[in-house]
Amino acid sequence: MNHLTERPSPLISDHDLAAHGMPRDPVAHTHEELAALVSLLLEQRKPRIEAVSVGHSRDAASRAAAAAFATVWTACGGTVLTTVDWPEKAASWLRPATRLASGPPDAWVMAAALPGFAQLARRLRRSTDWDPARTYAFASLQDSRLPAFAGPDTVHGMRGATADGGTWDIRGRWLAACPPGQVPS
After folding, report:
1. What is the pLDDT of residue 6?
2. Cα–Cα–Cα angle for 17, 22, 24, rounded to 5 degrees
3. Which neighbouring-strand residues pair with 109?
């Protein structure tokens, strides 16, 4: 546990959600997206990523994306340490956060709806050794509102794949995307 364990992790209010607009529900992942996500993890050389923890919302698209990733990752020789799901609304995010951070994994992979993940990320950051810079996600979290909902320091360094096989990453308050075949600057 880190030094932030005792700090509360406030829930995102309905007012804040309304102020930023309700995010769309996750949609089915694409083959290009899955390939780009796996490539992001395989390209990481130092330290090499082998063991991951997978997290997902309970909606059908997120479940399917997490299962597809786990299948491909293990076929590539990787290990899935744990798979953790969470409801979109919860009184406390501590249990799924603690389960995701146990291990510890080399990286985390997320397939989720934005509001639930933003609240989980707050708890992960405040109560565990979770590192957003070692977190990779599907396109469902490629949303410029993620830093606003979770807090810019909460998700700084997180990255993922776009539906068309490109990539995205979060730098402070900004989410930057690169088309397929381009390297982020």
Report:
1. 40
2. 145
3. 54, 136
Q: In the chain, what is the greatest distance between 2 CA atoms, to the nearest angstrom?
A: 45
Share of the chain above pLDDT 90, in %: 71
Q: Are 177 and 167 in contact (CB under 8 A)?
A: yes
In sequence order, the 6+-apart residues with CB closer than 8 A to the CB of 61 are 25, 26, 27, 28, 29, 111, 140
Segment 150-162 mean pLDDT: 93
Q: Which of 19-33, 93-107, 169-183 has the lowest mean pLDDT?
A: 19-33
* Structure tokens given for 65: 């994306």
What pLDDT band is residue 185 in, cutting at 50, 70 and 90? low
| Token pair listed for 125 | 């950051």
Cα 100 to Cα 57: distance, rounded to the nearest angstrom: 13
Tokens representing residue 88 in the block: 């979109």
Given 2.60.200.30, 3.40.50.2300, 3.40.50.300, 3.40.50.150, which CATH number is that of 25-178? 3.40.50.2300
What is the C-alpha separation between 158 and 20, in angstroms, rounded?
A: 20
Predicted confidence band at 71 (pLDDT cuts at 50, 70, 90)? very high
